[in-house]
Amino acid sequence: MTEEKMRFEAEVSRLLDIVVHSLYSNKDIFLRELISNASDACDKLRYEAISNPDMIAGDSEFKIRLMTDNVRNVLTIIDNGIGMNKADLVENLGTIANSGTAKFVEAMTQAKDAKKSVDLIGQFGVGFYSAFMVANKVEVITKKAGDSQAWKWTSDGKGEYTVAETEMDGRGTQITLHLNDDSKDFTEEHRLRHIVKTYSDHIGIPVVLMKGDGDDETLNEASALWTRPKSEITPEQYTEFYKHSSHAFDEPWKTIHYQAEGAIEYTGLLYIPTMRPFDLYDPARKGHLKLYVRKVFITEGADELLPPWLRFVSGVVDSQDLPLNVSREMLQDHPLLTKIKNGLTKKLLSELESSAKKDIEGYNTFWEAFGSVVKEGLYEDYTNRDRILKLARFKSSTVDGWTSLEDYVSRMKEGQKAIYYISGEDVDALRRSPQLEGFDAKGVEVLLLTDPVDEFWMPSVGQFDEKDFKSVTRGGADLNDVKADDSDADKKDDADDKPVSDAELDTLIAAIKIALGTNVKDVRESDRLTSSACCLIADESDMDLRMERLMKQHNRVDDVSTRILEINPKHSLIKKLSDMAKADAKAAILGDAALLLLDQARILEGEALPDPVAFARRLDLVMEKGLGA
């Protein structure tokens, strides 16, 4: 078969240039990444060999070998793992940042500093390509276990690669790096020894330096880190294992290493990251934990180990009680997995509860990154709902930073019976929402919710500490029973602040109803507005405004329902309109003004106007009359 030349996925050549020239401050990282990939390949084959021992017949001792040639400036990394076929090569080495190259390149280009660049690549999992930092050319020769055909992948990292058939003894993968002039020292034994000891000592597969004289040297301890006593593991080793097992580049926020004993026995080494994994919001919601049975790798991302709302947690779980030949299909219904899942979840919740009390700043940073995912548990995990609810943090209309529900309840006003909230896309926009004016005037705190998941868990949960959750954009948010702050109560009534009389307001409301017709469900006086003329709210029995918009975006409802228009009887515009209605309730300009009020309220809600041309015409007319006066 002739050599086949292929181009990388679009924009990859640009990405490789970023990787080579601006990504890493420490070039040693490339070897850690290649050794991690080799270790993963051995783990995968070890699992496959449980059901098919012939796959490792004649070569059952897994190892990763390093070979150097300081004359040709070549470094070779060889493993006897599962290997790759042609399709695997194209998918794994021909497609960088599989989750979205264009998005990755855009993020990398906008990164302002080296640290941010490293953080970003850690999110997109392109560690193999760090090899091009030190190599002018990379050759990969590989043969998948059980296949007879080997393949050779070659690239100089400038936009193209070739794939061709080749010969190879045995299975596995051999990566040959033709080092550039600035990287010749990576053929030196002491340099390789230091890198492996620093970054890969935790790997449970021997990393062997081949010396050619038969006096080969194993460079790492080659025992699974989670099996060692905690007292013998340094923080640096924990961190390096996190980066190895998660293919991450950030520092873990929390490291949890413990052994469960009793009815079931298992060891857990869990990490809570500081940065969001790139696939955190992937619809598949896959986990990041690896399952081992007596140090034999079984599967990665097992949903049976943690609920989806903890999918950002990475690490390993090693069970002593599961059968060694357990299949991935059997895992779904295995009762021991359910017990392990419950144990891991409780352990993580306890760790988060402790951090929320002892490390408030660190916990708030964690919540900033992962709170939107944790809140999925409020909707899905009924068993742990109360504990998650106490862990939840929110932005608020009256306090800076994050607040808990317990703190909110402790600040509730006299006569306040509900926990009020408003939802939208942006915190600053929510703070300016007209629906908040009456609450602000009485000093009533309102939670500001910006995550789409809030629309689902709020109605599902319903209460906290026997206090109902109530949206300020729906009817029924009665503030009459809430005692205002003393500073507000002492204020004298201003003549200009007096509302229109009830009779005049009734006349105006009737005129507006006629003008708007079926465009609104009702028109009523508002007790929530203080400085705005009007706002839209949902009826108490209707869906919340933002929830309905989300449902419409996903084609779950055909159209938004009609809303209630509330008007502020103390506003100067409403007073003038009331005077006009008193003089002539059928005046044409009154109808145009009513439609303008409705469009104004729609704009404040972030909704598109149904007829922008008519809005502009009416606005011109009203402005012309006003200027003429």
From TrEMBL:
GO terms for molecular function: ATP binding; ATP hydrolysis activity; ATP-dependent protein folding chaperone; unfolded protein binding. Its main location: cytoplasm. GO terms for cellular component: cytoplasm. Residues 26-183 form the Histidine kinase/HSP90-like ATPase domain. Transmembrane segments: none annotated. Pfam families: HATPase_c_3 (PF13589), HSP90 (PF00183). CDD domains: HATPase_Hsp90-like (cd16927). ATP binds at residues 33, 37, 79, 84, 92, 99-100, 123-128, 173, 328. Residues 1-328 are annotated as: A. The keyword Cytoplasm applies. It comes from the Bacteria. NCBIfam families: PRK05218.1. Belongs to the heat shock protein 90 family. This is Chaperone protein HtpG. The lineage of its organism: Bacteria, Pseudomonadati, Pseudomonadota, Alphaproteobacteria, Rhodospirillales.
